[in-house]
Hints:
The chain is an alpha/beta fold. The chain is 45% helix and 21% strand. It has helices at residues 13-25, 36-46, 62-72, 86-93, 107-125, 156-167, 175-182, 191-204, 226-243, and strands at residues 5-9, 29-33, 50-54, 56-57, 60-61, 76-81, 99-102, 130-133, 136-139, 144-147, 150-152, 173-174, 214-217, 221-224. It is elongated.
Amino acid sequence: xxxxxxxxxxxxxxxxxxxxxxxxxxxxxxxxxxxxxxxxxxxxxxxxxxxxxxxxxxxxxxxxxxxxxxxxxxxxxxxxxxxxxxxxxxxxxxxxxxxxxxxxxxxxxxxxxxxxxxxxxxxxxxxxxxxxxxxxxxxxxxxxxxxxxxxxxxxxxxxxxxxxxxxxxxxxxxxxxxxxxxxxxxxxxxxxxxxxxxxxxxxxxxxxxxxxxxxxxxxxxxxxxxxxxxxxxxxxxxxxxxxxxxxxxxxxxxx
Length: 255
């Protein structure tokens, strides 16, 4: 079995070696770089699934490398930084990083973050790149949504919420379940879901007061309109017969 390749771009040689050793012990293939330029060279050479980047590199800002990697659209990105303010974290994530870990950190947390990112990549690779449900089209690769041919601008959280609802294939999901599946961080207030559903409906529904795509299920939560799912299944059956591939439903897994 080919090991998942992870690239470490870290200026501190001791930390770089320590991270590399633990990742190798966990079964990953690892390449190590000490600078921004070496990190780019390693990317071209190994095409890693995940790149772990120190925010402070001797030949440039690690955030610059994160932006560059994000443009390649091939690797997940985990930023490591001693900068722990909310502003710094937001700035790092806006470069395209998938996660941000502040120094110092425990090795158990580091490995858990890595494993979570790798799981995400495996799930993404196993899902269809686009979903068409009657008037709604969800482009998973570009994270874009079209309603009746018009592109709709969604926030990352709105997109994740729509994805999870569609993935449930018409099964009602409670607010607490939606918080677990669609939110990156733990949220204590289930009513956060209501706020985002309302915002999402205003963008994708023809009549938000009488929603057709995202429906309310009394005493439970919300569901994606089963009629759209059934339509998607019928379309897929036709396509899959010609392609001779296994049957799939409207959406198959979490992002």
